[in-house]
Amino acid sequence: MLHDEVEHHVNEGKIRKGKALFAEFNGHMTTSYKENLTDMVIFANDAGDRAAAEFVVNGTYLKTDPGLPEARGQTYRLPAGSFFTIRDGKIARVTTYYNLADWVAQVSA
């Protein structure tokens, strides 16, 4: 479903380009976080080249991420959204936004 030249724009960080870096990011996320998305609403434009999803991330912080608070199995609930560009019938851009300060406050409590 991903375009070979997919661009992953993360909330805090550099743009990752290509399937390999996207897979690496997802592997890291699986190691550090256990997340379940709920309350998902999907939007798409009439042309079929842009889409968005709004959702709630229900998670557990499993392994400390460098530069972030220490992981101790804290749980969190965080509204988020992702935006997509579709090219050649595949996802060519993923941009995700969430409130990092809210997440830090939740796992630091």
What does this structure look like?
There is one protein chain. The protein is an alpha+beta fold and 109 residues long. Helices cover 21% and strands 51% of the residues. It is built from 2 helices and 6 strands, in the order E-E-H-E-E-E-E-H. The protein has helices at residues 19-32, 100-108; strands at 2-9, 16-17, 33-44, 50-61, 75-87, 90-98. The chain has a 6-stranded mixed sheet with strand order 2-1-6-5-4-3. Strand 5 (75-87) and strand 6 (90-98) form a beta hairpin. It is globular. The protein starts with a strand and ends with a helix. The relative contact order is 0.21. The mean pLDDT is 96.
Give the tags:
single chain, 109 residues, alpha+beta, six-stranded mixed beta sheet, 6 strands
Topology, please?
Elements: E1 2-9, E2 16-17, H1 19-32, E3 33-44, E4 50-61, E5 75-87, E6 90-98, H2 100-108
Parallel strand pairs: 1-6
Antiparallel strand pairs: 1-2, 3-4, 4-5, 5-6
Entry summary:
By secondary structure, the chain is α+β, with helices and mostly antiparallel strands. It is 21% helix and 51% strand.
Shape: globular
Mean pLDDT: 96
Strands side by side in the biggest sheet: 2-1-6-5-4-3
The biggest beta sheet reads: 6 strands, mixed
Question: Please, how many helices?
Answer: 2
Task: State the distance separating the first and last CA atoms.
Answer: 38 Å
Helix content: 10-25%
What's the total number of strands? 6
Whole-angstrom Rg: 15 Å
Beta content comes to over 45%
Give the low-pLDDT segments.
Answer: none
Secondary structure class reads alpha+beta
Order of helices and strands: EEHEEEEH
